[in-house]
Amino acid sequence: MKKVKYSMLGLLGLSMIFIGCNDPGKSSNGALASSAAEKVYIAPGQRDSYYAFLSGGYSGNLTVYGLPSGRMFKEIPVFSQFPTSGYGYSEETKPMLNTSFGFVPWDDLHHPDISQTNGELDGRWIFVNGNNTPRIARVSLSTFETEEIIEIPNSAGNHSSSFITENTEYVVAGTRFSVPVPQRDMPINEYKGNFKGALSFISVAPDNGRLNLEFQILMPGFNYDLSRPGRAKSHGWFFFSTYNTEEANSLLEVMASQNDKDFIAAVNWMKIEEYVKNGGGTKMPANYAHNVYDEETHTGTSTMKKEVITVDPTDVPGAFYLLPTPKSPHGCDVDPSGQYIIGSGKLSADITVHSFDKMMAAIEGKKFDGEAYGIPILKFEEVMAGTVKSGGLGPLHTEFDDKGNAYTTFFISSEVVKWNVGTWEVLDRKPTYYSVGHLMIPGGNSRKPFSKYLVAMNKITKDRYLPTGPEMEHSAQIYDISGDKMELLYDFPTHGEPHYAAGCPAELLEPRSKKIYRLDENKHKYVTSSPDQARVERNGNEVHVYMSTIRSHFTPDNIEGIKVGDKVYFHITNHEQDFDVPHGFSIIGQNTSEILVMPGQTKTSVWEPKQVGVWPFYCTDFCSALHQEMQGYVRVSPANANVELSWSLGE
Ligand code: RUQ
Ligand code: CUA
């Protein structure tokens, strides 16, 4: 978590003091009501009422948890290779990790957002961002697989992403680091006035979710940290918090905290959409990957795109305004009514709330306080709705319930503070363990939050669990927020570093969850649709094995005529049509991972035999009582041998 690098020593000292005060042994744990255990206990065979999708941060992946139990159900690979399933190792999924920099099998995944219709969660897809090599991914909430990844050109540190508009018209990606656009060789100290901050709008096709980068707005060279869509009355607008409006290029921990106020940038995307539709904007050469996974061919393809439409904000008057916001704001959150925009000045004790109505009136009345690079700055007093005098320190992120309350995390003082939206009165506060970053209420970033549970995701674990060496998994706490006061229910470890999370009721996802792929719909190029079609074909040094699997047999299970120097492709089709019966495949000396093949699916594993011998392969997933019998052999002869290609079809 980077936001706290500024005067690290001072703040760290401070946070230690706070952590000291929050010693759980002395306070909160001892006071836990005995009924708390019952509230999170899910009896064997029973199910959780919510799914929570936690970002993995530097794991590059997304994890799925149940609430209230805190049980982890799955890790969904998105930006990182994942040997557990072979994602990023199988030939079909490698193209998903292609970029303009080549194969990039890792990223820093921060902010999941679930698709919406009319501002309410609809459970079709979840969008996530890759921070490091800017990418946006779309994950299916039916297969829980990554279906699409689009690279974002002209961007760097893709952090104010991946948030969606209230009918999933766009998924939005904003750059944290401004960069030269187009990229070029230039002195770093000429940053100011020359670097640009790209805000990218990627459309989402309503029927199949396909992504297309429609336009990029080239904003002044600030750092665009977080963003949220307008909703209900403010639908059509998007809000981005900024810091480093000083445009410093060195010693940012000091130099980027000079201005008392930075901005929340308000962007009227509907106006820009119209401008672009009418031929506005500039076509610019670009080079970025668009990777799509097809569920019928079970195969990903990567296409390089060569052009992007850029928009200069000064060309669209009335579409861009800057709202002064104190102390290097981090979180930028919009309440369920769409009326309030919350800026969390991370160096502050207070939370600043802007009013959408006041903003519109100030625009109307031209209540400006100068401009920045041609973008009008609105007068602070004219847009500010109120200040929450929190008494906490270091506000980061805010979520909302359905009763008009907001919940803000405070990193430095390690707590969640509940306050009223409208009176700005603090209603409750509870410690977290420790140094909380994001928090999540299912639907808390939509028009319709589900106000039962709140999950706080913490950066520092320290004494919460048994030590596991110098590194501990981060801790999360779940609170019951159905009453007036928050009630701490449970602690659970998370995986990687969860930044944001998204959650929804289980009944939204359960009915659409896919159980098998139908074999008769498998359109994979190398499918083996029945075991009698299993075969081995040689094409020069390339050998293609068409293999089928069913409990508990590989067809073929003996192959001869393979030579050192060959490249052997095992195309494995799983003939099971039962839920939850994958077969695995691995072979000795492979420089890749195993693959797991789901029922009805075809996946390809590559092997380049380097040593003469008879080498076994086997199923890696315990699939039946005779799983241990699910094995075979490949005979590998010297490169110059002339052993005939042959294989066994069995009975
Ligand atoms: S976000 S807490 Cu604040 Cu990307 Cu990490
Ligand atoms: Cu198939 Cu074990």
TrEMBL record:
Top-level taxon in the UniProt lineage: Bacteria
EC annotation from Swiss-Prot or TrEMBL: 1.7.2.4
Coiled coil (UniProt feature): none
Top-level taxonomy: Bacteria, Pseudomonadati, Bacteroidota, Flavobacteriia, Flavobacteriales
Subcellular location: Cell envelope
Keyword Oxidoreductase in record: yes
EC top class, as a word: oxidoreductase
Keyword DNA repair: no
InterPro entries the UniProt entry points to: Copper_CuA, Cupredoxin, N2O_reductase_N, Nitrous_oxide_Rdtase_Sec-dep, Nos_propeller, NosZ/Cyto_c_oxidase_sub2, WD40/YVTN_repeat-like_dom_sf
Organism listed in the record: Muriicola jejuensis
Protein's name according to its UniProt entry: Sec-dependent nitrous-oxide reductase
Gene3D superfamilies: Cupredoxins - blue copper proteins, YVTN repeat-like/Quinoprotein amine dehydrogenase
